[in-house]
Amino acid sequence: MANIFDVVADSTRRDILHILLERYNQAADSVGELSVSDIVSQLGLSQPTISKHLKVLREAGLVGVREEGQHRYYHLDYAPLEEIEDWLIPFLSVDFDATAEEIDAEAGLKSEQRAFAAAIGKAFADTSFQMSHAVKDATSKKWRKSD
């Protein structure tokens, strides 16, 4: 399975996710399904191109599909996006306009304490990211009882 960041790096896949999000927000039934042909018409791309991208999104767990005869209806499954959110949170809480001195003064921290806290935060985020991938990799493999 592809890394979630690699999956959403493609602009077409992000466009598909955005369309499905809009549909989800508009849906009264809270499922927000769209057919492949609806997605094709909104993006103006070929059906094989959209289907290829939907397959990648489906394999990453970002979309779910319901089959009805020959038609496929896709919906957003945003749970895997929490991995991206977890990665982004430390960046969103940073005031890039504040100077190090202002941050230290607000927090009452000395520069050594701030550096130590930043190192711990980075180590925690890196470890959390690595552990989530290790767990996903381990749970995706089919384990057999050895004879």
From TrEMBL:
Upper classification of the organism: Bacteria, Bacillati, Actinomycetota, Actinomycetes, Micrococcales
Annotated NCBIfam families: HTH_metalloreg (NF033788)
Organism: Cryobacterium psychrotolerans
Keyword terms: DNA-binding, Transcription, Transcription regulation
CDD domains, A to Z: HTH_ARSR (cd00090)
PANTHER family: TRANSCRIPTIONAL REGULATOR, ARSR FAMILY (PTHR33154), TRANSCRIPTIONAL REPRESSOR SDPR (PTHR33154:SF33)
One Gene Ontology molecular-function label: DNA binding
Name recorded for this polypeptide: Transcriptional regulator, ArsR family
One Pfam match: HTH_5
